[in-house]
């Protein structure tokens, strides 16, 4: 079974490695959406793969670090592309959520990066 929980956060960033003429080199902001997908058997007692409340608790410290911050100032996010944010979230949260299968980070409604641990 696959289950997904979505979260949103607001943050500023700039992309230090793009060409000077690239508009994303300048500080700007996004309303990010993060989707955490978990996979595993459904517990016959609870009917859950995992309680959504437990996913929320696991994500809360990361949300506090990301929301209304400049992502470039966070250790490990010095180059905060959607790809790098997805990997960063995956690596930080997977110890608490062993059933984690994928982290998807939407930078805009149409553009996103999905990381499945490889
Ligand atoms: N592969 C990637 N490409 C780009 C990334 C990324 O993370 N991975 N990031 C950016 C910039 O962050 C850029 O701000 C993305 O937003 P943009 O496409 O400019 O969309 P906006 O909503 O900011 O602007 P519109 O006016 O709606 O186009 C670029 N590339
Ligand atoms: Zn951007």
TrEMBL record:
<protein>
    <recommendedName>
        <fullName>6-carboxy-5,6,7,8-tetrahydropterin synthase</fullName>
        <ecNumber>4.-.-.-</ecNumber>
    </recommendedName>
</protein>
<keyword id="KW-0862">Zinc</keyword>
<dbReference type="GO" id="GO:0046872">
    <property type="term" value="F:metal ion binding"/>
</dbReference>
<comment type="similarity">
    <text>Belongs to the PTPS family. QueD subfamily.</text>
</comment>
<dbReference type="InterPro" id="IPR007115">
    <property type="entry name" value="6-PTP_synth/QueD"/>
</dbReference>
<comment type="function">
    <text>Catalyzes the conversion of 7,8-dihydroneopterin triphosphate (H2NTP) to 6-carboxy-5,6,7,8-tetrahydropterin (CPH4) and acetaldehyde.</text>
</comment>
<dbReference type="GO" id="GO:0070497">
    <property type="term" value="F:6-carboxytetrahydropterin synthase activity"/>
</dbReference>
<feature type="binding site">
    <location>
        <position position="28"/>
    </location>
    <ligand>
        <name>Zn(2+)</name>
    </ligand>
</feature>
<dbReference type="GO" id="GO:0008616">
    <property type="term" value="P:tRNA queuosine(34) biosynthetic process"/>
</dbReference>
<keyword id="KW-0671">Queuosine biosynthesis</keyword>
<feature type="active site" description="Charge relay system">
    <location>
        <position position="68"/>
    </location>
</feature>
<keyword id="KW-0456">Lyase</keyword>
<dbReference type="InterPro" id="IPR038418">
    <property type="entry name" value="6-PTP_synth/QueD_sf"/>
</dbReference>
<dbReference type="Pfam" id="PF01242">
    <property type="entry name" value="PTPS"/>
</dbReference>
<feature type="binding site">
    <location>
        <position position="13"/>
    </location>
    <ligand>
        <name>Zn(2+)</name>
    </ligand>
</feature>
<comment type="pathway">
    <text>Purine metabolism; 7-cyano-7-deazaguanine biosynthesis.</text>
</comment>
<feature type="binding site">
    <location>
        <position position="30"/>
    </location>
    <ligand>
        <name>Zn(2+)</name>
    </ligand>
</feature>
<feature type="active site" description="Proton acceptor">
    <location>
        <position position="24"/>
    </location>
</feature>
<keyword id="KW-0479">Metal-binding</keyword>
<feature type="active site" description="Charge relay system">
    <location>
        <position position="107"/>
    </location>
</feature>
């Amino acid at each position: 079974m696959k289950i997904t929980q979505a979260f949103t956060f607001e943050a500023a960033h700039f992309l230090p490695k793009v060409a000077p003429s690239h508009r994303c080199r300048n500080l700007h902001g996004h309303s990010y959406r993060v989707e955490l997908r978990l996979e595993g058997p459904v517990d016959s007692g609870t009917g859950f793969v995992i309680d959504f409340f437990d996913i929320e608790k696991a994500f809360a410290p990361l949300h506090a670090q990301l929301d209304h911050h400049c992502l470039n100032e966070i250790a490990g996010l010095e180059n905060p592309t959607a790809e790098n944010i997805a990997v960063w979230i995956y690596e930080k949260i997977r110890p608490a959520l062993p059933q984690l299968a994928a982290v998807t980070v939407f930078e805009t409604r149409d553009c996103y990066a999905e990381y499945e641990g490889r």
